[in-house]
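Example 3.2
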Amino acid sequence: MVDTPAEKSILPSMWQVPQLFRNRLGSTVGRQRAMAADGHLLLVLHAPPKPDEQERVGRFHWRSPEGEWNSNELGKGVGALAKHLDEFEGRIAALDRKEEQAKTAEDYFAVLDQLAPLYRAARNLHAVLQEARTMFPEYLEIIELRNRAYAIERTAELLFEGTKNSLEFHLAQRAEVQAKSSQRMAAAAHRLNILAAFFFPIVTLMAILGVDFARAAENFGLAGDVFFVSVLLLGLVAGGFLTYFVVQAEDDSDRSGEEKTRR
């Protein structure tokens, strides 16, 4: 037996709503929206999204032409819709407290991760109530609910922007700390390069001649102390020249990098 559209509908079966509502809804919630037919108003809303929730939970609020409100989860009366808004306000207030306690970029990202879908749902909720207000301007109870939904959307928007700015500030701070650390490491490496360049000739000469220093001095016809001083001076002079070339090479590399950056 093939199910009829009414049997497939996700609306409560006892609701005496126009068949058009059931046909348009089908078996899935879809986006938040308002439907109107024959004086009936149906609000298709989403429950406040939970963290890591992939599918939205649908909440339906139906107003009959007689002015009676019903919901599929929160009871009867227009107060059910007010409870729906209360849940949004409570979730946003909880995230606001988390944002105030956040100290690291990870903390702010966690708040944004939960706030983003909540903000989108609140924005669409306000749009649905505004649409309902346009459909039925004589339904005065929608005005206050619409105004509350706008306040909820605005609060979520301000919290989202504030949290996003705080996250970007912390990331910029972290990048600055890393840049300073890299500069310190580069400066330390630069000093090591200079020291290595300066003492490399002396170390090399001493390694070559130090195997038999006395015999090397005799071969050059010099006294040991004079030969030692001569080798030391030669190493220092060679080290000075080598240091100069190392510094010049690093300066040329820095200038080349700056020119590429400007381009």
